Amino acid sequence: MNLPEYLAPESFARAWAPEVPGPMQSPGPRHSPAPGAKEERPGSSGIPIAALMRAVWWSGDFHLNPATGQPGKVRKRPVPSAGGCYPVQLHVLCGDGCDVPKGRYVISSSTGGLRRLAYDDEVHCDEVHHGAGSRQGVGNYRGTSGQPPEVGAVVVLTVLPQRTAAKYHHRTGPLLIADAAYAALALVHHASALSVGANWKILSPGPWTAFPQETALACVALGTSVPATGVAGVSTHQLARRRSADVFAPRTTPRMSPALDVRSMVAAAERGIVPPKPASCRMRLIDDAGLDDPLLAQHCAGQHWIRNLDALLIFETETLPDLDAMWWASATAAHCLYTALGTDVAIDFRPVGGWTSARGGWTALHGLGMLHQHTHHTNERAVHAGQ
């Protein structure tokens, strides 16, 4: 299999090298051009695909530009992204029974509506790598071939790697996986709130033929199975108010242990919604003195703001990091975030990437920072938007 550069084993493992990423480069376009695509007005019946996609992937509000204090160009999206790079692209393949006609769609960056592609050529992405569905199982459905399913919809999640590589260079690979995982789990949790059956699968990474500059990483089937049980539904309102924890203002109160049963959420996730935990991996909760350890900040690319957290859930491996381990870590963290959001837990989260080297024989894959909502002030900054 011909893997994209940043996801090939040697390049992927190099992401944990302690060297500082190079200078900022041009990130390229935010979206691939889709000439001739026309926005479709959704109907009043059918699976609410248009509303579901808009709620997860669009916002009418913008982060403030720190230089002017006025709204900038970065939307306050419900789904986090490392550095606000947003490399993930969503391709929606609609079959019968949806609120828009059968066809292939992309999301309008200006309105959040679905734009139907003007062509009908068959497109392909690589084979399914492995599945992570609901307790009812993943189920078989079309969609990974680029053809719309007979009923329902399949969302193919691709990435434009340069969006992230321009800023993070050799650290790009794990960040692409994490961004795709948070987007996929947001779709699954929001679908649950709408009583729409949702299953997702990880794809063997490869070019998405319709847009060869994009790399397909995962897909989510919507309305092709019965709604999952035990998945916390996240409403449109809950998605709209999700903000990453503001960890840049100095703490003014003592730390508080998160009023959140992280282990129970992870146990629920391991019953089907996320990939199985590799035998070489573990997760652990760091709080109090552990967050004040200066070596911890050094271990995550000098992000000293982690000492302002109330707790940090960290995912680690004792072997060389690979795609399976990174998918498990990112998807489990995303599941915890959206479960807390859907159950109105008074905690804000901030994904933590950029981990380097091994420590005590364990390499950190991903982190999920936690901060009680009443212990900090909201201070959105465009430079940190999307975290």
Description:
The protein is an alpha+beta fold. An eight-stranded antiparallel β-sheet has the order 1-6-5-4-8-10-9-7. Strands 11, 12, 13, 14 and 15 form a five-stranded antiparallel β-sheet that branches. It has a two-stranded antiparallel sheet with strand order 2-3. The radius of gyration is 20 Å and the shape is globular. The two termini are 32 Å apart.
Give me some keywords for this one:
single chain; 387 residues; alpha+beta; 8-stranded antiparallel β-sheet; 5-stranded antiparallel β-sheet; 9 helices; 15 strands; disordered C terminus
Summarize the structure.
The protein is of the alpha+beta class and 387 residues long. It has helices at residues 9-14, 49-57, 161-168, 172-193, 236-240, 262-269, 289-292, 294-299, 323-342, and strands at 38-39, 62-64, 71-75, 88-94, 103-107, 114-116, 128-132, 153-159, 198-208, 211-222, 281-287, 311-317, 347-352, 358-359, 362-372.
Write the layout of secondary structure elements.
Layout: H1 9-14, E1 38-39, H2 49-57, E2 62-64, E3 71-75, E4 88-94, E5 103-107, E6 114-116, E7 128-132, E8 153-159, H3 161-168, H4 172-193, E9 198-208, E10 211-222, H5 236-240, H6 262-269, E11 281-287, H7 289-292, H8 294-299, E12 311-317, H9 323-342, E13 347-352, E14 358-359, E15 362-372
Antiparallel strand pairs: 1-6, 2-3, 4-5, 4-8, 5-6, 7-9, 8-10, 9-10, 11-12, 12-15, 13-15, 14-15
- Percent of residues in helices comes to 10-25%
Order of helices and strands: HEHEEEEEEEHHEEHHEHHEHEEE
Rg over CA atoms: 20 Å
What is the mean pLDDT? 85
Query: What class do helices, strands and sheet pairing give?
Result: alpha+beta
The number of helices is 9
Low-confidence stretches: 121-143, 377-387
- Strand order across the largest sheet: 1-6-5-4-8-10-9-7
Span between termini: 32 Å
Characterize the biggest β-sheet: 8 strands, antiparallel
State which percent range the strand residues make up.
Answer: 15-25%
The number of E-state strands comes to 15
What spatial form do the alpha-carbon principal axes imply? Answer: globular
